[in-house]
Amino acid sequence: MRFSAFISVLRSVGPVVIGISLGFTLSLLSVNWTEEACYLDGKEGEEVTLGQDGQLKGARKPNSISSINDVESEEDFEPRIVPYKQVQQSAPKKVFRAKYISTELGMRERLFVGVLTSKNTINTLGVAVNRTISHHLDTVIFFTGMRNRKVPHGMFVVSHGDERLIWNMFQNIKYILDHYINEYDWFYFVQDDTYTEADRIKALVDHLSMDRELYMGSPEEFIGGEMEGKYCYGGFGYLLSRTLLLRLQPFLENCRNDILSARPDEWLGRCIIDYTSTNCVSEYEGLQYHHYELGKNSDPSKEQSEQFKKALTVHPVSDPEQMYRLHRYFTEIELQKTYDEIAKLQAEIKNVSVVAFEGNRTAQWPVGINPPFEPKSRFEVLKWEYFTEEEIYSCIDGSPKCELSGIDRMDVADVIDVALGELNKKYKPVLHLKKQQLINGYRRFDPIRGMEYTLDLQLEVVNQKGHSRSITKRVHLVRPLSRIEIIPMPYVTEATRVHIIIPLTLQDRSYVDHFLEVFASNAFETSENAILTFLFIYDPVEAQQVNQNDIFASVKTQINTYERKYPTVKIPWISVKTETPSQIKFMDIISKKHPVDTLFFLAHANTNINSEFLNRCRMNSINNWQVFFPIHFQDYKPDVAYHNQQRPVTTDLVKDAGHFDRRSFDEACFYNSDYMATRTRMVADVQENEEILETLDIFDMFVKYSGLHVFRAVEPALLQQYSYQACNPRLSEDIYHRCVQSNLEGLGSRSQLAMLLFEQEQGNST
Fold this sequence. Notes:
The structure is a single chain. By secondary structure, the chain is α/β, with parallel strands linked by helices. It has 24 helices and 30 strands. The strands form nine sheets. The chain has a six-stranded mixed beta sheet. A five-stranded mixed beta sheet has the order 24-23-22-25-29. Strands 16-19-20-21 form a four-stranded antiparallel beta sheet. Helix 4 packs parallel to helix 11, helix 5 (165-179) crosses helix 9 (264-276) and helix 19 (672-681) packs across helix 22. This is Chondroitin sulfate synthase 2.
């Protein structure tokens, strides 16, 4: 019993005892055991330690208590005041930052091309060289001694003013060292009677190390054979590295004064060998500089040698026509190489797709083209257009059927020819297929892939024995989208003054009050760089009564009121008399009263104009390049859009409030010079038929006669209130039809019109 009682007590007390013992043990292990410091001069209570530098330093153990002497020593301490001296800051140095990141990081372009030409050949061979290589290479500069007064368009020409060949070569190297040595790694020189395969030169340079002193071309022995080494013959062109030119730079003047030579390429070779000990080579690290010497009156299409096919340069070229034939030949070779690479990649994709998770289903047709667009709802399903060889059943004007013409007809014919070519390529020589007719044709535009076609062709199949039969074959084709490219556009600014032209008829007078009120707040009060001009249009009867009853008297009074309110503003107006209002006739009068560089904005009095739109008018109208026809947002008829509802103060751009009126072409931004040039081109047609001035509007005129880019886009900043247009039947059928359609579509949305009809039907039924 006693033992069991002891065990029970031990179980309850044991953990406590073990915990206390463990705590004491850990505390003893953590104590720093140090020796007592020595007592100096027999005084206790002062504990000192000896530092590493031999000096005595006072210290105490962490668990000790400071003595009275320690407190007294701390009280005797006097702080030392260090006077503050203000540091005079020097003026900060201006940090120079490069304009481009590539300059600051020391990044350079790969290849500079210098073409050696002359006054007599720059307009013939020089132009041919420029047309064949300039769109493949970044920088091409033409060096000449003397030049004509008129430089060919699109060419950068440097003239040295001297016909001495050696002097010009010296100036060429000096010009590059002064202007381009820090911007390029490689410098390529070629004569204008040499054809250069630009892509191959670029590929060669891309595989060469930039820090090598390299002189590469077609090696030739020096004339006479007295000098050791070889120079690069200029007829086949040559490459110079930046490192080599930098090493040659200090000795360039010595070369000019000391080296005598009859040929510029030989002079340069002597200079490089004498001062850099670098010889011309045609091969470097396994890379060959292939060239080919073209025989006199040779036809490039009949040259079959491998050396010719591999050539980077071909020399001599006798005339521009031969240069273009060479360019076509080598372009076809490179194009065939590209096709072969595509076929090889497609075969590799097919082979890899076999072992993929989903097997061959992972390889979309055609191989290498993006998969088709997958709609997420019924509203995103792409629509197929049905067509035959003569008709298409999807027309722009909404008609169910129209004639297949123009670019659509060319598109269908091209697709059928490609389909026959691919089928014959597949089945030859066993079978030969001929087209009999197109039974069915379908096409749709896929925004991811391109234009897709499905053709049902009736074909005549002829075998090798001459037997034939008629079959029906369905084929699928895709015209894929090409890669995205940046098209250079002329530079425009938002500082151009806009001349706003507002034609007014008798029916438009009611809009003037609201128009001037909005325009004054958006333009007059903000000092917008724009001039407002009104064009008052009188019919013959109204013009005769202008002195007794001027229909625009109230408008002229309003103009005077705003001119007095804004003293810096002048609002000119022009009066014209005509039976049939015509945009072209009006602009003929206005164009003569303004300079050729004037930017016009032709608008309607019912249009709200603001600074946001005027800036887009300036940016989208490019002189001698592009005209701009914005699509305004027009409110629906209030009685339809807000039936049994309160009308809002301001209109939002929502589908129930209005729509972009794609039938209207009244608004236009264009330069006077473009208008005058276009009118000049239509003079011959006007002489044959004067009514063309009344049947065409300015949009049709620019499309048919100008050759400019016609830029048409929706414009959210250009708003119009609802108005019913009086369509003139004397205008062309197309313009009259557009006007009628615009009135009908401007009434309201389909759902709003349907609700009105539904309510009307309900009212009639009751």
